[in-house]
Write a structure and sequence with these properties.
single chain, alpha/beta, 4-stranded parallel sheet, 8 helices, 6 strands
């Protein structure tokens, strides 16, 4: 199905997120992938922020990594019409963002670059506490964390799961992020994080699996 919306279960999960998310009062900005399911997740899961007048910025670089129909977005004019009654800023959504070609291709190196651009964009924003609603596969590239990537339905992230990150104190333009201690302890307790070698090995294994399943199609670059 092309660019599906939320199922009734998905909507229920969003309402639960809204109830359980503990940081509604401190959020300064809402950002979402322009796919319909992430836009609706933001609208349902972050209602207190919307009531405070925060807009949602649709960021096409945060779309999912594959070129499957369910991971391919809709024309921006269609989205603007569908969400005309909501405060969503589509000004960053380019006309070719659904093409799955060029910078939008389902290619591991290009997705890695796109994830870095998202981190750089977020780091350059003046707001302090930003919510980004995006996708499980893309989140492994964004966070550069591949732990648990083989445990759930294709990724290590559950539906409507939230984690907290800060930017690492580093030089260069990678804009790396690190999960906060409180966020990690809430998920993992005292479990030791993976080493860099383990992260690299798990990343390679996961990308090979995605290649086998046709998520990354090099010929379409």
């Amino acid at each position: 199905m092309h660019d599906p919306s939320l199922t009734p279960l998905g909507e229920a999960q969003c309402y639960q997120l809204c109830q359980e998310f503990p940081y509604h009062g401190s959020v300064d900005l809402l950002v979402a992938s322009p796919l319909r399911r992430t836009l609706y997740t933001t609208l349902l899961g972050f209602q207190p922020e919307l009531k405070r007048g925060l807009p949602i910025i649709a960021l096409p670089e945060a779309q999912e990594l594959a070129d499957l129909p369910c991971d391919t977005g809709s024309d921006v004019k269609i989205l603007e019409e569908e969400f005309r009654d909501h405060a969503i800023d589509f000004s960053l959504v380019e006309e070719d963002w659904t093409s799955n070609k060029g910078k939008w291709a389902a290619d591991a190196e290009i997705v890695e670059k796109r994830a870095r651009e998202v981190r750089q964009w977020l780091k350059a924003r003046p707001e302090k506490d930003i919510v980004l609603v995006t996708h499980g596969g893309f989140l492994h590239f964004l966070t550069e964390d591949w732990s648990d990537s083989t445990l759930l339905h294709g990724t290590g992230w559950a539906n409507t799961e939230f984690r907290s990150y800060i930017f690492a104190n580093e030089s260069g333009d990678n804009a790396s992020i690190a999960e906060t201690m409180a966020s990690r302890q809430r998920r993992k307790g005292s479990e030791t994080p993976l080493s860099q070698t383990e992260q690299r090995e798990l990343k390679a294994a996961k990308q090979n699996l995605w290649d086998e399943r046709g998520y990354f199609l090099q010929s379409k670059v």
